[in-house]
Specification:
alpha+beta, nine-stranded antiparallel β-sheet, 7 helices, 19% strand
Length: 249
């Protein structure tokens, strides 16, 4: 087992919840909140060293970490500019998607991204990195499609993009029952457990399809190549996903 695999899959532990205020403060300062740690408990590495190693693995999609299975079920807390919500991932629903999601969260890929496509009465979507360097690695790195086991009912989460083999890092939450998406191959891998109405339902949706390169624009090139710099300038009201952490099992 290589160093990276030991570093993250054997000893990688995420501790207690990060409050939105704490995460926001940490985001501004660049520090990890006292209530949360991504530093392995049996490692002497500093927080900066762990962050650097996580980035190195994110930039290396051939790293052995990406082939490791996720837990059968796990919970992820998302700290956002509107508050916190949690998602329960059920690997049996879509193991390929669940595995990638688990490692993307653990390595910090979803930290400081924007909810770039919020369409009331349909879906809430995110997963384009705010860092163009990461987008260059992951945007087109599609994975094999999981069979659809669970239906796209309200509150479930699945990977975006219609064409087979194109789903990579962008995910969406169904804001209503969208069972018609089942036949298109969208395989939910989890469901919102807390904060569906109070947080997910409150994320800014005034731009509709305009801000995210959705079906009416059909163009995400500037989001991908410029990241948060473009989104924050062109669509300043978009809500932020400050930090995502695995909090259970």
């Amino acid at each position: 087992m290589n160093h990276s695999l030991r570093y993250f899959t054997t000893a990688f532990l995420v501790l207690a919840a990060c409050t939105t205020a704490a995460c926001a403060a940490a985001d501004r300062s660049g520090a990890t909140p006292a209530s949360e740690s991504r530093v392995p408990t049996d490692s002497t590495g500093t927080d900066a060293e762990v962050r650097a190693e996580a980035r190195r693995v994110l930039l290396d999609p051939q790293n052995a970490i990406w082939s490791q299975p996720a837990p059968d079920t796990f919970m992820v807390r998302f700290a956002t500019s509107r508050g916190d919500f949690t998602i329960e991932v059920i690997r049996a629903w879509a193991p390929i998607g669940a595995d990638r999601f688990y490692h993307l969260v653990q390595l910090g890929y979803f930290d400081d991204v924007r909810f770039h496509r919020v369409v009331p009465g349909f879906i809430t979507q995110w997963g384009v990195s705010g860092d163009p360097t990461l987008n260059a690695v992951w945007y087109d790195r599609g994975m094999p499609d999981d069979p659809v086991v669970a239906s796209n009912v309200r509150g479930t989460i699945a990977y975006a993009f219609t064409d087979p083999g194109t789903r990579a890092t962008q995910v969406y939450i169904n804001m209503v029952d969208n069972a018609r998406l089942d036949a298109q191959g969208f395989a939910p891998f989890g469901r919102v457990r807390t904060g569906m109405d109070s947080v997910v339902g409150s994320l800014y949706g005034g731009y509709g399809e305009e801000s995210g390169g959705g079906v009416r624009r059909g163009d995400q090139r500037r989001i991908v190549s410029e990241g948060n710099a473009y989104l924050d300038a062109a669509w300043p009201a978009l809500d932020r996903l400050v930090r995502a952490v695995v909090v259970a099992p």
